[in-house]
Design brief:
Elements lengths: L1 H11 L3 H36 L23 H52 L9 H43 L5 H44 L1 H6 L3 H53 L5 H42 L20 E10 L2 E11 L4 E6 L5 H8 L7 E6 L2 E2 L5 H6 L1 E4 L10 H5 L8 H10 L3 H4 L19 H15 L3 E5 L7 H14 L4 E5 L11 E6 L2 E6 L1 H7 L2 H12 L6
Parallel strand pairs: 3-8, 3-9, 6-7, 7-8
Antiparallel strand pairs: 1-2, 1-4, 4-5, 9-10
Length: about 600
């Protein structure tokens, strides 16, 4: 419990004065609940019993002073005073409850959002590397369920536990005031509960951990079923996905059912124990009443206290079970938040220039036992246009990702303006590149908003200019709402080529010194690709362009063309030089020219 508090307190400390006020209000509610039986006790001994002809008796109630000056036979006046106080306590209780509930939830929402934002920042700083340790389902569960669990820990589990302990202690005092023998059975019950609770909490921790895992798997299955809907429908395998979804849902249901069954068994034991204790206590009270050591009113007060004490005992036990759930959430959530980003520690705070000169010096990228990029040396002064070709898996994308700091190199050096990349701020490096990647991700928003992602305040004129350069106009203006057309999540509603054009426009709007096109025209026809390249010459004049592609013809006008094979540079040179070399590039170019006619030639 302390570890949960320690880890999450920095996110909730600013509202702890409010939460302390809520605890005080909770204790006030407890006091109101505790003193109410004292009023009932007086009503029985000084109003109800005398109304049936019995003599009024002295009572241990703390509210005797309210009716001391009222004649004992004036039952209506006594009843009016006691009922008035009783109703006042009830009104105060519900007003206090309303205030406490609303302010605790109102102010804690901001802290909850702060925690979620901290998780998002962690995900953003780690990027795709985090997905090696966590599935998307894990991250969704952490952001949703675990954050909610931490919030409940602060606004419910801690305050309600304090409320329960306070009530039990004060109730013991009131019981002992009636008769010291009345606290024997509750104390014995507490001792019995204490030993049983150990097994209950151990069970809770185990099953809450399993439930977290099954919930994460279900979230991943749901996400894949939604995002993969096109593939699923194109193969007609809805039945397979339905079966997988059903299996994960059943697994989650089974763990919930088993947890519910086991909790119910403990609840039945606690409830049975409660009933036995109540019978024993009632026997003791009857004996005390018969021997004139307890009044009928005090007996009524005892029943009220005893039922509440036992109820609070069980509340504490199940609150402790909920804290075990919070413990699982805390372990997962802060295990991810506290995960050390060793890569981030490699970088400094140097600022990037407006015209970076990029150079790879014998750079290698090794992952496990596989060499993805092998001893690459490449010089890209500002304004140079570099094209990279090669078979799938040759290292093209790894090389451009390494250039942007998305992936880390293992050997050699990457420099900007002659300074090692690790001396720069990582965000500064990212800011120097406009990146249109292979796997296009579009947000569920308008075409305009997707293009203006880097700068949401960009003018409509600039957005349209970038869209026109990327040939977005060709399809966007055919929609009823034009650039204001809402596209589905991940770009559902657009074809692959249309998504790629939006991605290129998005990279252009960033207006970074270096434009990286990572096979981002693969879904475009030759004519559209040609138009975009001609537009780039006008829109992106003088800036650096690095492009990976499988189309040899697309690189014809580039300053340098590199052909990669098995992570190494196998060929390099201008278009004319590579055609004269008559190697891999020349062979691909000739083969593609036999099949397609380049627009404009």
């Amino acid at each position: 419990m302390f570890n949960i508090f320690k880890k999450s307190f920095p996110y909730y400390k600013r509202i702890y004065p409010i939460l302390i006020l809520c605890v005080v209000l909770g204790l006030f509610q407890g006091i109101l609940t505790l003193v109410t039986p004292q009023i009932i006790s007086l009503m029985v001994d000084r109003v109800i019993n005398p109304a049936f002809g019995k003599a009024p008796v002295e009572n241990s109630s703390i509210f005797m002073f309210l009716i001391e000056d009222i004649p004992a036979d004036n039952l209506w006046q006594i009843m009016f005073v006691l009922v008035g106080v009783f109703l006042g306590f009830i009104a105060a209780y519900f007003i206090t409850f309303y205030i406490r509930w609303n302010i605790s939830h109102y102010f804690s929402i901001g802290c909850d959002n702060k925690l979620r934002l901290g998780i998002l920042n962690k995900i953003n700083s780690y990027g795709t590397r985090l997905l090696k340790d966590y599935t998307p389902g894990d991250l969704i569960t952490i952001v949703n369920s675990d954050c909610q669990g931490i919030r409940e820990f602060h606004i419910a589990n801690i305050p309600f536990t304090i409320d329960s302990i306070f009530f039990i202690i004060v109730a013991f005092v009131f019981l002992s005031k009636i008769n010291i023998l009345l606290i024997v059975a509750p104390v014995a019950t507490f001792g019995l509960y204490f030993f049983i609770t150990k097994g209950f909490l151990k069970m809770c921790e185990k099953f809450y951990g399993e439930r977290w895992k099954k919930n994460s798997e279900f979230n991943s299955e749901t996400q894949e079923s939604i995002y993969g809907i096109r593939t699923i429908k194109s193969y007609g395998r809805e039945d397979i996905r339905r079966k997988g979804f059903y299996t994960k849902a059943e697994n989650l249901k089974d763990i919930h059912m088993e947890l519910g069954r086991r909790r119910q068994r403990y609840f039945m034991f606690f409830d049975t124990t409660d009933q036995i204790v109540m019978v024993i206590c009632m026997a003791i009270c009857i004996a005390l009443t018969v021997n004139f050591k307890m009044t009928a009113g005090e007996y009524a007060a005892f029943l009220s206290y005893m039922l509440s004490i036992i109820g609070y005992f069980v509340d504490i036990i199940f609150l402790a079970g909920d804290i075990q759930d919070n413990k699982v959430s805390c372990k997962r959530l802060f295990g991810m938040v506290d995960k050390k980003d060793e890569v981030a520690e490699l970088y400094g705070d140097r600022q990037m220039s407006d015209k970076p000169h990029i150079r790879f010096e014998n750079v290698s990228v090794i992952e496990g036992e596989q060499t993805l990029v092998d001893n690459v040396t490449l010089d890209i002064p500002y304004g140079k246009k570099v094209g990279i070709m090669g078979k799938t898996g040759c290292g093209k994308s790894v090389l451009v990702k390494t250039m942007q700091g998305i992936r880390e190199y293992t050997d050699g050096a990457l420099t900007f303006d002659g300074v090692n990349s690790h001396e720069y701020n990582r965000r500064q490096i990212a800011g120097a590149f406009g990146y249109a990647m292979q796997d296009v991700f579009l947000f569920s928003n308008t075409i305009e908003s997707n293009i203006a992602f880097y700068n949401p305040d960009a003018s409509e004129e600039l957005v349209r200019k970038c869209g026109k350069a990327a040939e977005v106009d060709e399809f966007a203006l055919n929609f009823k709402d034009g650039y204001q057309t809402i596209i589905g999540e991940k770009g559902f509603g657009l074809s692959g080529g249309q998504k790629q054009r939006v991605a290129i426009a998005r990279a252009l709007l960033k207006d970074a010194p270096v434009l990286v096109l990572d096979d981002s025209t693969s879904a475009l026809d030759i004519e559209t690709e040609s138009k975009i390249f001609k537009n780039l010459d006008e829109f992106f004049t003088g800036k650096t362009i690095v492009m990976t592609t499988h189309r040899a013809m697309a690189l014809k006008e580039f300053d340098e063309i590199i052909y990669m094979e098995n992570g190494k540079i196998a060929e390099r040179g201008t278009f004319d030089e590579l055609m004269q070399l008559d190697g891999h590039y020349a062979a691909i170019y000739k083969r593609q020219m036999d099949k397609e006619v380049y627009a404009g030639e």
